[in-house]
Amino acid sequence: MARILCALLCILAAVRADEDMGCGGFVRASGGLGGAKPDLSPVKAILYTSGGVVKAETECAPNGYYYLPMYDAGTYTLKLEGPPGWLFAPEEIEVSSAATGPCASGKDIDFEIVGFALAGRVLTDGADTGPAGVQMTLKSSSGATYSSQTVAGGAFLFKDAPQGTYTITANHPKWKFKTSSSAVVASFGESAIKETFGVLGFDVSGRVNWVTGAPGVSVTVLLKHKSGGKDLKATTDAVGLYVFDSVAPGEYVVVVDCKNFEVEPAKGAAVSVAHGTAAVSETLKITSFSIKGKVIDAAGEAVAGVEVMVDGKKAATTDASGSYTLKTAAGTYTISANKEHMEFGALTKYEISSQLRRIGSISADKYSLCGQVVLDSASASGLTVTVKPAKGGKAQTTKTDAKGKFCLMLPVGDYTASVSGSSAVITPAALEVSVLKGPVLDARFGQVALHVRGKVLLCECGGSK
User: Which of 23, 287, 301, 445 has its CA 20 to 30 A from that of 11?
Assistant: First the structure.
């Protein structure tokens, strides 16, 4: 019986010992921090398993004392958690339930508050979160400078700044802030920076190309919010890149702002803006665009009904005002014009791009001189028609056809025409014609008509009186 009782007492003692197993100690402020002794009840002591799971936690007493029971045997990590910016040394301690460990021996495991890091957040204006990548600079009145950078959500931390008064500045190469700098005081226990700076928006960039791959230069694009509101506008640069500044988070679509352009995708390119720089993944491709031109005569007047050719293929016809519209892509082309009895100077190796507002005018530089030689007594076929410039220069010649008709193309100017090669006398001997204002189609030559006039006298014959 005595043996059984002794065994039970030993078991109870062992259970009681396991129940009392735990880790405790004090959290103390470093002597170098100065100031009144703080209330340390906001500090928590937390026991983590090797897998990072919280096994136990407790709040410190106002004087910094803590105690954590250790119900299960094993090895754990002991850490402290304080208000934002509080720094502890050591940062963590490994503890175990082993009999030789400090917890089993009842030895205090102490931590020390070694400083108060300045902590804060940069928020997107009007939101409760913010971007990563904002450069934060802390500068003291003595000129000492400390740097930090925001992480996802906008949080930043200065761990190495001693107590004192500072100016804190937010900076980013592309983003603008509602407030860019603020005064801050680092003192015992004070670590939260209240100013959130307010990022006004983020840059959104993308590209516009021609379907050929060439960049869409000087193209105006619009950023439209899917829920409506005011559109933002940007213009592409020399490589087809556009950038919108200070865009608030939301869902958008980018479209080309020109009714003359045909673009793929026709509905535009979608982009989602969160809390940071956004890139439009889909390139806007201009497949074609419409551009106007005009055809004029030598005097600058409109010419209707002219066929406009692009690289030898008919592309348009001029209207009553001499205007035409081409639907084309950017590139280098030869643009020419055709109309009966007229010749036009072509636009050779002419570059068309989106920044070109209008095609240069195509002007007539030659007109037809046509007519007919009509003879009564001889054939008018194969006669030579010679046309000489009125102001001198090289003459041009042509032959009449079977009906005596002729036609040749002349540079704009005044001329004298004549016909040779017939046994008949032709009139006029020289015909003055002008092709300054347009073609001449009714030049006419004819045969001279001879009229004989005289008297017939009768005389007596036979010599009789």
Answer: 23
